[in-house]
Amino acid sequence: xxxxxxxxxxxxxxxxxCARILQQHGIPAAVYDLDASRTVRNQGGTLDMHPDTGxxxxxxxxxxxxxxxRARPEGQQMRLVSRxxxxxxxxxxxxxxxxxxxxxxxxxxxxxxxxxSLKPDTVRWGxxxxxxxxxxxxxxxxxxxxxxxxxxDLVVGADGAWSKVRRLxxxxxxxxxxxxxxxxxxDDADTGHPRLxxxxxxxxxxxxxxxxGFVAQRNSGGHIRVYVGMRTDEDWHRHAGLDLTDTTAVRxxxxxxxxxxxxxxxxxxxxxxxxxxxxxxxxxxVPHTWAHAPGVTLLGDxxxxxxxxxxMGANLAMLDGADLAHALxxxxxxxxxxxxxxxxxxxxxxxxxxxxxEGIDSAFSPDSAAxxxxxxxxHH
Length: 380
Description:
This protein is α/β, with parallel strands linked by helices. It folds into two domains: 6-72 and 105-173 and 284-363, FAD/NAD(P)-binding domain; 175-283, D-Amino Acid Oxidase, Chain A, domain 2 (2-Layer Sandwich). The protein has helices spanning 13-24, 54-60, 64-70, 107-116, 189-192, 194-200, 236-239, 247-257, 263-270, 301-304, 313-330, 334-363, 368-379, and strands at residues 6-9, 30-32, 46-48, 78-81, 87-91, 104-106, 123-124, 129-136, 139-144, 149-152, 154-157, 175-186, 204-209, 212-218, 224-231, 277-283, 296-298. The strands form four sheets. A seven-stranded mixed beta sheet has the order 5-4-13-14-15-12-16, with helices on both faces. Strands 7-2-1-11-17 form a five-stranded parallel beta sheet, with helices on one face. Strand 4 (78-81) and strand 5 (87-91) form a beta hairpin. The protein is globular.
């Protein structure tokens, strides 16, 4: 089909990578995103790009040099700390190997890099998909909350955890993992919070014990993003009668949960510059597969939402986007391209999701400190 109407729902790393590679090969694609603009929402923390997934996708997209100019190789440092503040494990990447490891980049910087690589007006902001209507022969009419609609020969669901496109293929819905993060952070950490900046190091610091933990991540601009994690009920705050908008009450509740932990670690809770955001963690059932349907497919979290303890979410999404784009370049028939893409996507996403489920279960378990130390020692 000449110039198929390819519509990508979701302007995350996976969808943007797909659009970029398609455009490199002269195939037009439109991206629709519910955000009103590229700057309206905080894009989250830092990402480590793995050689055979995220880095591979960036090279395929012709963006490796631009990526590495923005990346932070020093962000690969991984540190494990005991609940009393002792450093149990500290892996600092050798300077000579920085480009060959998993250099970090802020999620917002990565998204901007991908957005800037696309032709003007590729992304249509302010388009929240409400539903898709099958028109026959693999075509769909997409209806948006702003009252507009568009027809597509291929709909790519890159619309994340609560994907509307996924409903065309699967009845699966994300399930609560049993773990909630409360996100907070420190601004200008090296100057304003030097003790906590030193404890965090140059990359990621984790302190885990008995179903509780801290994850502190270096971001650019001197910011440290902190996740206070706990294995708890999904509605823990309601059961506690806690108003999540009451900063003082949230702080006091979290400090009580971490009674007996190092004063330095507790300062990650009490000395926040950003307040607190409740983030329960969800994952799709494993395995998540679906029967082929003409004119629609999924990538990224829409296809294989998993816990962040895989370290693979954005990496796999970008690899998905690259693989789908190349399948469309190689095959003139959309249906054949989808078949080829999904034959690769589904097996690898199942393996990654199984690893992610094991990762979060070991990180938030009664003996999480010992399990994590053994894992780090083995893999470094």
